[in-house]
Task: inverse folding
Protein backbone atom coordinates (compact mmCIF):
# COMPACT_ATOMS: atom_id res chain seq x y z
CA UNK A 1 0.00 0.00 0.00
CA UNK A 2 1.19 3.50 -0.83
CA UNK A 3 1.83 5.79 2.13
CA UNK A 4 -1.10 8.00 3.16
CA UNK A 5 -1.48 11.45 1.64
CA UNK A 6 -3.14 13.61 4.29
CA UNK A 7 -5.54 16.47 3.77
CA UNK A 8 -3.31 18.74 5.87
CA UNK A 9 -0.67 17.70 8.37
CA UNK A 10 1.73 19.55 10.69
CA UNK A 11 4.86 20.88 9.00
CA UNK A 12 7.66 22.00 11.31
CA UNK A 13 10.20 24.56 10.13
CA UNK A 14 13.27 23.75 12.19
CA UNK A 15 13.57 26.36 14.93
CA UNK A 16 10.58 25.21 16.97
CA UNK A 17 12.78 22.98 19.15
CA UNK A 18 15.20 25.83 19.79
CA UNK A 19 12.44 27.87 21.48
CA UNK A 20 11.05 24.83 23.30
CA UNK A 21 14.57 23.96 24.50
CA UNK A 22 15.03 27.51 25.77
CA UNK A 23 11.83 27.22 27.79
CA UNK A 24 13.02 23.90 29.19
CA UNK A 25 16.52 25.16 30.01
CA UNK A 26 15.21 28.22 31.82
CA UNK A 27 12.49 26.19 33.57
CA UNK A 28 9.70 28.29 32.02
CA UNK A 29 7.53 25.16 31.84
CA UNK A 30 4.31 26.95 32.70
CA UNK A 31 1.46 28.89 31.25
CA UNK A 32 2.80 32.34 30.29
CA UNK A 33 6.49 33.14 29.84
CA UNK A 34 8.91 34.66 27.31
CA UNK A 35 7.77 32.44 24.41
CA UNK A 36 4.17 33.51 24.94
CA UNK A 37 5.19 37.18 24.89
CA UNK A 38 7.40 36.58 21.85
CA UNK A 39 4.70 34.70 19.99
CA UNK A 40 2.16 37.46 20.68
CA UNK A 41 4.61 40.02 19.29
CA UNK A 42 5.17 37.86 16.21
CA UNK A 43 1.41 37.70 15.63
CA UNK A 44 1.05 41.47 16.03
CA UNK A 45 3.91 42.17 13.62
CA UNK A 46 2.63 39.71 11.06
CA UNK A 47 -1.05 40.67 11.04
CA UNK A 48 -0.71 44.36 11.85
CA UNK A 49 -3.13 44.00 14.78
CA UNK A 50 -2.02 46.24 17.64
CA UNK A 51 -2.56 43.59 20.32
CA UNK A 52 -2.73 39.81 20.58
CA UNK A 53 -3.34 37.33 23.38
CA UNK A 54 -2.19 33.76 22.90
CA UNK A 55 -4.72 31.22 24.15
CA UNK A 56 -5.22 27.50 24.52
CA UNK A 57 -7.44 27.24 21.41
CA UNK A 58 -9.23 29.19 18.72
CA UNK A 59 -12.49 28.08 20.32
CA UNK A 60 -11.40 29.71 23.60
CA UNK A 61 -10.68 32.93 21.65
CA UNK A 62 -14.21 32.95 20.21
CA UNK A 63 -15.69 32.29 23.66
CA UNK A 64 -13.71 35.17 25.22
CA UNK A 65 -14.55 37.57 22.37
CA UNK A 66 -18.25 37.04 23.02
CA UNK A 67 -17.81 37.50 26.78
CA UNK A 68 -15.84 40.71 26.16
CA UNK A 69 -18.68 42.03 24.01
CA UNK A 70 -21.08 41.39 26.88
CA UNK A 71 -23.04 38.54 25.30
CA UNK A 72 -25.39 36.99 27.86
CA UNK A 73 -28.02 34.24 28.07
CA UNK A 74 -30.94 34.94 25.76
CA UNK A 75 -28.97 37.31 23.52
CA UNK A 76 -28.79 36.63 19.79
CA UNK A 77 -25.48 36.31 17.96
CA UNK A 78 -25.21 36.09 14.18
CA UNK A 79 -22.78 33.59 12.63
CA UNK A 80 -21.94 32.01 9.28
CA UNK A 81 -23.87 28.76 8.91
CA UNK A 82 -21.29 27.27 6.55
CA UNK A 83 -18.46 26.61 9.02
CA UNK A 84 -16.94 24.27 11.56
CA UNK A 85 -19.03 23.89 14.73
CA UNK A 86 -16.34 25.66 16.83
CA UNK A 87 -17.51 28.99 15.36
CA UNK A 88 -20.98 28.57 16.80
CA UNK A 89 -20.54 26.42 19.94
CA UNK A 90 -19.27 29.32 22.11
CA UNK A 91 -22.53 31.20 21.45
CA UNK A 92 -24.31 28.28 23.08
CA UNK A 93 -21.80 28.12 25.97
CA UNK A 94 -23.19 31.52 26.99
CA UNK A 95 -26.83 30.50 26.65
CA UNK A 96 -27.13 32.88 23.70
CA UNK A 97 -28.95 31.99 20.48
CA UNK A 98 -27.08 31.47 17.19
CA UNK A 99 -28.70 33.18 14.18
CA UNK A 100 -27.31 31.41 11.12
CA UNK A 101 -26.54 33.09 7.79
CA UNK A 102 -26.05 31.46 4.40
CA UNK A 103 -23.06 31.88 2.07
CA UNK A 104 -22.74 33.70 -1.24
CA UNK A 105 -21.32 31.91 -4.27
CA UNK A 106 -18.13 33.93 -4.92
CA UNK A 107 -16.21 33.35 -1.67
CA UNK A 108 -18.50 30.70 -0.09
CA UNK A 109 -18.55 32.92 3.02
CA UNK A 110 -21.29 34.98 4.69
CA UNK A 111 -23.71 36.65 2.27
CA UNK A 112 -24.02 40.41 3.00
CA UNK A 113 -27.62 40.48 1.69
CA UNK A 114 -28.76 37.63 3.91
CA UNK A 115 -26.93 39.29 6.81
CA UNK A 116 -28.90 42.51 6.40
CA UNK A 117 -32.14 40.59 5.96
CA UNK A 118 -31.47 38.74 9.22
CA UNK A 119 -30.57 41.89 11.18
CA UNK A 120 -33.68 43.80 10.11
CA UNK A 121 -35.86 40.78 10.87
CA UNK A 122 -34.30 40.23 14.31
CA UNK A 123 -34.69 43.92 15.15
CA UNK A 124 -38.33 43.80 14.02
CA UNK A 125 -38.81 40.84 16.37
CA UNK A 126 -37.41 42.94 19.22
CA UNK A 127 -34.01 41.29 19.69
CA UNK A 128 -31.13 43.16 18.11
CA UNK A 129 -28.13 40.81 17.63
CA UNK A 130 -25.17 41.49 19.92
CA UNK A 131 -22.39 40.42 17.54
CA UNK A 132 -21.66 38.98 14.10
CA UNK A 133 -19.14 36.15 13.61
CA UNK A 134 -17.91 35.93 10.03
CA UNK A 135 -15.73 33.01 8.92
CA UNK A 136 -13.07 32.82 6.20
CA UNK A 137 -13.31 29.23 5.09
CA UNK A 138 -10.37 27.41 3.55
CA UNK A 139 -8.45 30.70 3.81
CA UNK A 140 -10.70 32.69 1.48
CA UNK A 141 -11.52 36.22 2.66
CA UNK A 142 -15.25 37.02 2.76
CA UNK A 143 -16.75 40.12 1.14
CA UNK A 144 -15.57 41.88 4.26
CA UNK A 145 -16.11 45.48 3.11
CA UNK A 146 -19.76 44.79 2.29
CA UNK A 147 -20.24 42.92 5.56
CA UNK A 148 -18.71 45.84 7.48
CA UNK A 149 -21.05 48.31 5.81
CA UNK A 150 -24.01 46.29 7.11
CA UNK A 151 -22.46 45.75 10.57
CA UNK A 152 -21.68 49.47 10.94
CA UNK A 153 -25.07 50.55 9.66
CA UNK A 154 -26.71 48.69 12.56
CA UNK A 155 -23.81 49.27 14.96
CA UNK A 156 -23.15 45.59 15.65
CA UNK A 157 -19.53 44.51 16.34
CA UNK A 158 -17.88 42.12 13.90
CA UNK A 159 -15.81 39.15 15.10
CA UNK A 160 -13.67 37.54 12.42
CA UNK A 161 -13.14 33.80 12.73
CA UNK A 162 -9.85 33.73 10.81
CA UNK A 163 -8.92 30.30 12.21
CA UNK A 164 -8.30 29.07 8.65
CA UNK A 165 -7.06 32.35 7.22
CA UNK A 166 -3.76 33.33 8.84
CA UNK A 167 -1.73 34.80 5.96
CA UNK A 168 -4.83 35.75 3.94
CA UNK A 169 -5.52 39.37 3.08
CA UNK A 170 -8.11 41.66 1.62
CA UNK A 171 -6.71 44.71 -0.19
CA UNK A 172 -3.38 43.98 1.49
CA UNK A 173 -4.81 43.97 5.04
CA UNK A 174 -4.66 40.82 7.14
CA UNK A 175 -7.85 38.95 7.88
CA UNK A 176 -8.75 39.29 11.54
CA UNK A 177 -7.93 43.03 11.58
CA UNK A 178 -11.15 44.39 10.05
CA UNK A 179 -13.59 43.88 12.92
CA UNK A 180 -13.53 44.34 16.69
CA UNK A 181 -11.76 41.01 17.17
CA UNK A 182 -9.94 38.46 15.05
CA UNK A 183 -9.62 34.82 16.02
CA UNK A 184 -6.71 32.60 15.01
CA UNK A 185 -6.18 28.87 15.49
CA UNK A 186 -2.98 26.84 15.64
CA UNK A 187 -4.58 23.42 15.76
CA UNK A 188 -2.69 20.52 14.20
CA UNK A 189 -4.23 20.81 10.74
CA UNK A 190 -4.07 24.60 10.31
CA UNK A 191 -1.56 26.47 8.12
CA UNK A 192 0.80 26.71 11.09
CA UNK A 193 0.37 24.78 14.30
CA UNK A 194 1.43 24.80 17.93
CA UNK A 195 -0.12 21.30 18.33
CA UNK A 196 -3.11 23.08 19.89
CA UNK A 197 -3.61 26.77 20.44
CA UNK A 198 -5.30 29.95 19.39
CA UNK A 199 -5.17 33.72 19.69
CA UNK A 200 -7.40 36.72 19.99
CA UNK A 201 -6.22 39.82 18.10
CA UNK A 202 -7.56 43.36 18.23
CA UNK A 203 -6.56 47.03 18.09
CA UNK A 204 -8.33 47.51 21.45
CA UNK A 205 -5.68 47.35 24.16
CA UNK A 206 -8.12 47.27 27.06
CA UNK A 207 -10.12 44.38 25.68
CA UNK A 208 -7.02 42.29 24.95
CA UNK A 209 -5.72 42.96 28.47
CA UNK A 210 -9.11 41.93 29.81
CA UNK A 211 -8.92 38.74 27.72
CA UNK A 212 -5.61 37.86 29.41
CA UNK A 213 -7.19 38.50 32.81
CA UNK A 214 -10.23 36.31 32.06
CA UNK A 215 -8.01 33.60 30.55
CA UNK A 216 -5.97 33.31 33.76
CA UNK A 217 -8.87 32.64 36.14
CA UNK A 218 -9.86 36.31 36.58
CA UNK A 219 -7.65 36.94 39.60
CA UNK A 220 -8.08 40.38 41.12
CA UNK A 221 -5.02 42.32 42.18
CA UNK A 222 -4.46 41.01 45.73
CA UNK A 223 -1.84 38.87 47.52
CA UNK A 224 -4.43 36.15 48.18
CA UNK A 225 -6.73 34.65 45.55
CA UNK A 226 -9.55 37.14 45.12
CA UNK A 227 -12.25 36.88 42.43
CA UNK A 228 -15.06 39.19 41.48
CA UNK A 229 -15.75 37.63 38.07
CA UNK A 230 -15.97 34.14 36.58
CA UNK A 231 -12.59 33.17 35.13
CA UNK A 232 -11.29 30.68 32.59
CA UNK A 233 -8.11 28.66 32.16
CA UNK A 234 -7.48 29.58 28.54
CA UNK A 235 -3.88 30.85 28.41
CA UNK A 236 -1.30 29.30 26.09
CA UNK A 237 1.60 27.43 27.68
CA UNK A 238 5.16 28.67 27.25
CA UNK A 239 6.19 25.32 25.69
CA UNK A 240 3.43 25.44 23.09
CA UNK A 241 4.22 29.10 22.29
CA UNK A 242 7.80 28.04 21.53
CA UNK A 243 6.51 25.88 18.69
CA UNK A 244 4.50 28.89 17.54
CA UNK A 245 7.56 31.14 17.40
CA UNK A 246 9.36 28.65 15.19
CA UNK A 247 6.29 28.30 12.97
CA UNK A 248 5.95 32.07 12.51
CA UNK A 249 9.40 32.10 10.91
CA UNK A 250 8.12 29.89 8.07
CA UNK A 251 4.55 31.16 7.74
CA UNK A 252 5.12 33.01 4.47
CA UNK A 253 6.79 29.90 3.05
CA UNK A 254 3.77 27.84 4.11
CA UNK A 255 1.42 30.26 2.37
CA UNK A 256 3.50 30.02 -0.82
CA UNK A 257 3.48 26.22 -0.64
CA UNK A 258 -0.31 26.07 -0.17
CA UNK A 259 -0.79 28.50 -3.03
CA UNK A 260 1.42 26.28 -5.21
CA UNK A 261 -0.89 23.35 -4.38
CA UNK A 262 -3.84 25.41 -5.54
CA UNK A 263 -2.04 26.16 -8.82
CA UNK A 264 -1.33 22.45 -9.29
CA UNK A 265 -5.03 21.60 -8.92
CA UNK A 266 -6.08 24.49 -11.12
CA UNK A 267 -3.93 23.10 -13.95
CA UNK A 268 -5.08 19.54 -13.24
CA UNK A 269 -8.77 20.44 -13.55
CA UNK A 270 -8.37 23.00 -16.35
CA UNK A 271 -9.42 20.47 -18.99
CA UNK A 272 -12.00 18.58 -16.93
CA UNK A 273 -15.56 19.80 -17.45
CA UNK A 274 -17.82 20.21 -14.43
CA UNK A 275 -15.11 20.73 -11.78
CA UNK A 276 -14.53 24.28 -10.51
CA UNK A 277 -12.28 25.55 -7.72
CA UNK A 278 -12.87 28.06 -4.93
CA UNK A 279 -10.82 30.96 -6.31
CA UNK A 280 -9.99 34.55 -5.40
CA UNK A 281 -12.81 36.56 -7.07
CA UNK A 282 -10.41 39.38 -8.04
CA UNK A 283 -7.04 40.88 -7.10
CA UNK A 284 -8.43 42.45 -3.89
CA UNK A 285 -8.49 38.95 -2.43
CA UNK A 286 -5.41 37.06 -1.30
CA UNK A 287 -6.09 33.56 0.02
CA UNK A 288 -3.59 31.40 1.90
CA UNK A 289 -5.37 28.52 0.11
CA UNK A 290 -5.24 26.54 3.32
CA UNK A 291 -7.30 23.81 1.65
CA UNK A 292 -7.89 23.74 -2.09
CA UNK A 293 -11.58 22.98 -2.54
CA UNK A 294 -13.62 22.03 -5.59
CA UNK A 295 -17.24 21.88 -6.66
CA UNK A 296 -18.31 18.96 -8.80
CA UNK A 297 -21.28 19.32 -11.14
CA UNK A 298 -22.07 15.72 -12.01
CA UNK A 299 -24.40 16.81 -14.85
CA UNK A 300 -21.25 18.03 -16.62
CA UNK A 301 -18.70 15.40 -15.52
CA UNK A 302 -20.53 12.50 -17.16
CA UNK A 303 -22.06 11.47 -13.86
CA UNK A 304 -18.93 11.59 -11.68
CA UNK A 305 -19.86 13.08 -8.29
CA UNK A 306 -17.73 14.53 -5.54
CA UNK A 307 -18.30 11.28 -3.61
CA UNK A 308 -16.97 9.26 -6.59
CA UNK A 309 -13.81 11.37 -6.50
CA UNK A 310 -13.46 11.04 -2.73
CA UNK A 311 -13.89 7.25 -2.80
CA UNK A 312 -11.55 6.80 -5.78
CA UNK A 313 -8.82 8.76 -4.00
CA UNK A 314 -9.49 6.91 -0.75
CA UNK A 315 -8.74 3.64 -2.57
CA UNK A 316 -5.32 5.11 -3.36
CA UNK A 317 -4.83 6.06 0.32
CA UNK A 318 -5.36 9.75 -0.45
CA UNK A 319 -7.44 11.69 2.08
CA UNK A 320 -10.16 14.11 0.87
CA UNK A 321 -13.08 15.51 2.85
CA UNK A 322 -16.51 16.91 2.01
CA UNK A 323 -16.91 20.62 2.75
CA UNK A 324 -18.24 21.69 6.16
CA UNK A 325 -21.82 20.61 6.75
CA UNK A 326 -23.73 23.86 7.40
CA UNK A 327 -24.74 24.46 11.00
CA UNK A 328 -28.43 24.90 10.12
CA UNK A 329 -28.33 21.29 8.82
CA UNK A 330 -26.76 19.96 12.05
CA UNK A 331 -29.12 18.22 14.49
CA UNK A 332 -27.87 20.35 17.39
CA UNK A 333 -28.51 23.70 15.63
CA UNK A 334 -31.51 22.72 13.48
CA UNK A 335 -33.88 24.85 15.58
CA UNK A 336 -31.81 28.05 15.26
CA UNK A 337 -33.19 30.84 13.07
CA UNK A 338 -31.58 30.62 9.62
CA UNK A 339 -31.50 33.11 6.75
CA UNK A 340 -30.51 31.70 3.38
CA UNK A 341 -31.37 30.52 -0.07
CA UNK A 342 -29.72 27.10 -0.26
CA UNK A 343 -26.20 28.13 -1.36
CA UNK A 344 -24.32 26.43 1.49
CA UNK A 345 -26.53 23.34 1.16
CA UNK A 346 -25.46 22.97 -2.45
CA UNK A 347 -21.82 23.58 -1.52
CA UNK A 348 -22.04 20.79 1.04
CA UNK A 349 -23.67 18.49 -1.50
CA UNK A 350 -21.13 19.00 -4.30
CA UNK A 351 -17.93 20.21 -2.63
CA UNK A 352 -14.69 18.46 -1.73
CA UNK A 353 -11.46 19.51 0.03
CA UNK A 354 -8.33 18.11 -1.60
CA UNK A 355 -4.98 17.23 0.01
CA UNK A 356 -3.29 20.58 0.56
CA UNK A 357 -0.42 20.08 2.99
CA UNK A 358 2.53 22.44 2.65
CA UNK A 359 4.73 19.34 3.02
CA UNK A 360 3.30 17.56 -0.04
CA UNK A 361 6.02 16.33 -2.37
CA UNK A 362 6.04 15.93 -6.17
CA UNK A 363 5.56 12.15 -6.03
CA UNK A 364 2.40 12.69 -3.98
CA UNK A 365 1.06 15.26 -6.42
CA UNK A 366 1.82 12.75 -9.21
CA UNK A 367 -0.20 10.07 -7.41
CA UNK A 368 -3.17 12.45 -6.99
CA UNK A 369 -2.97 13.48 -10.64
CA UNK A 370 -2.83 9.87 -11.83
CA UNK A 371 -5.87 8.90 -9.71
CA UNK A 372 -7.93 11.86 -10.98
CA UNK A 373 -7.00 11.26 -14.62
CA UNK A 374 -7.81 7.56 -14.29
CA UNK A 375 -11.27 8.34 -12.87
CA UNK A 376 -12.16 10.91 -15.51
CA UNK A 377 -10.90 8.72 -18.37
CA UNK A 378 -13.23 5.82 -17.55
C1 LIG B 1 -10.15 25.18 13.61
C2 LIG B 1 -11.29 26.13 13.60
C3 LIG B 1 -11.77 26.69 14.79
C4 LIG B 1 -11.35 26.25 16.16
O1 LIG B 1 -10.04 26.39 16.47
P1 LIG B 1 -9.41 25.46 17.62
O2 LIG B 1 -8.05 26.04 17.80
O3 LIG B 1 -9.38 24.07 17.06
O4 LIG B 1 -10.24 25.56 18.83
C5 LIG B 1 -12.77 27.64 14.72
N1 LIG B 1 -13.29 28.00 13.54
C6 LIG B 1 -12.87 27.46 12.38
C7 LIG B 1 -13.48 27.94 11.10
C8 LIG B 1 -11.87 26.50 12.37
O5 LIG B 1 -11.48 25.94 11.22
Result:
Amino acid sequence: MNSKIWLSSPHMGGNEMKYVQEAYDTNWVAPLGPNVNGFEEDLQNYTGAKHASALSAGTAAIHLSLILLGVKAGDEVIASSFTFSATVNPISYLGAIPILIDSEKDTWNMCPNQLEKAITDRIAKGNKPKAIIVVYLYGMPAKVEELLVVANKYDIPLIEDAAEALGSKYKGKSMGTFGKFGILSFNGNKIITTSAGGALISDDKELIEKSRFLATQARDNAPHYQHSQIGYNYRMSNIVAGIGRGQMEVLDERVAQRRANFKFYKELFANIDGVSLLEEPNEDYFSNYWLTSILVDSSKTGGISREDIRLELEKENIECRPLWKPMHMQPIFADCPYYGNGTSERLFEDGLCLPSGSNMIDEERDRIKAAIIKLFRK
Summary: Residues 16-251 form a domain with the Aspartate Aminotransferase; domain 2 fold (CATH 3.40.640.10). Residues 323 and 348 are 5 Å apart (CA to CA). The mean pLDDT is 97. DSSP finds twelve helices and 15 strands in the chain.
